[in-house]
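Usage example:
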Amino acid sequence: MTAPEPTRYAGSLAFLLSQVGAHCAHVFAERLRPLGVTPRAFGLMSNLANGGNHTQQSLADLLGIHRNIMVGLVDALERVGWVRRERSQRDRRAFEIRLTPAGSKIVTQVNELVDDIDEEIAAGLSGAERQALASLLVTLAQRASLVPGVHPHLRGLTP
Amino acid sequence: MTAPEPTRYAGSLAFLLSQVGAHCAHVFAERLRPLGVTPRAFGLMSNLANGGNHTQQSLADLLGIHRNIMVGLVDALERVGWVRRERSQRDRRAFEIRLTPAGSKIVTQVNELVDDIDEEIAAGLSGAERQALASLLVTLAQRASLVPGVHPHLRGLTP
DNA sequence: ATGTGATTATCACCCTACATGACAATCACT
DNA sequence: AGTGATTGTCATGTAGGGTGATAATCACAT
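Running the assembly step on the lines above writes:
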C-alpha cells in the first residue's frame, strides 16, 4: 500500500549530508550523555582547554551563542564543578572562565570518546575512504565559510 | 587574545559530518522558506507525490513523527490548499491525505530547487568528487540503518 | 573630575515546539 | 453484543531559546 519507493530528494547531496550529519550529531550526543556532558558544554570546555583567557562574552562570540544563554550554561558547568568563574582583574565587569582539574579530565575523556565515535561511524569505510571523506568535507566547510570547531546549531542570529 | 587554534574534535569525521550536515539543513530550510514550505512539509508532500494511499497515521510512521504532531502539520497544509483530507472508505476513522494540484506544483518546484541547492553546496567539488562523496555518504547511511529520504530530526521516540 | 554612552552579566518574561495523556469515533475479532 | 485496538483530536505540561530591562563597570570626551 504505502509506496516504499524513495523520494527524489533522498539522493541529493544536500539531503544526504544533512541526514548523515544529523545522525552523527545524535550519536555524538548519546555517547556523551553517560558522562553528563552535552555537545554544547563540550564545545565550551574544549575551547577553554586550548588555553587563553576567556570571558563569558568571548566564549559566546567564539561559539556563536547568545550571552544570555551562556549564563545558564556556565551556571550548570559551575554547579558540577567543571568550570570556575573568577572576576577578571583587568575588567571587573567580566568573569574569566577557568577549567577546573575535573573539567580538564572530562575534556580528555571526551576527546578519546570522539575517536571511538569516528571509528563507529566510519566502520564501513577503509582508511583511504575515511581520509577522502574528511578531505571532501573540509573543502565543503571552507567553501561555506564554516568556522572549524564551531557547530552551526549553536549559531543563532547573533548580530 | 582568544586562541584561534581549532580544537581537537574539529577534524573528526563525526564532527565534520555533523557540522556540514547542519549547514546543509540550514541552507535547505532557508531556500525553501520563500515558497512557504518547511522541510518537514516537503517531506510529507514528496511522499504523497510518489503515489499510493496515505493516511495521517501511515504518513506519521513513514516520516517517523508522532501522530499528534501530524494533526497540526496537515492542518497547515490543508489551510494553504496543498493537501486535502478525505474520509477513507475502507476505514472511516482515517483520513486519506491527497495532494492538490497546487501541492503537486510545489513539490515540482522544490525538487528543482534541490538541484540548485546541491549545485550551491558542492560548488567547490568536481563531478567525480561529488559522485564519490555521495557514494561514501550512502555507505555510511546504510551502515547506520538510515531510511532513505527520512531525516533523523523528524524521528522522535516513536515506540 | 565628571558626565555620557557602551559593555558585561544577570534576570524576568514570552513564545514556540514538542511530549504526554485523555478522549470520541470507529474498527477488528470473538 | 462485547472487548480491545486503532485513528484522529484536543488539552495539558515542559524545555528551549528569544527579547528587553537592569545594575555594575568600563572607555572616552569634556
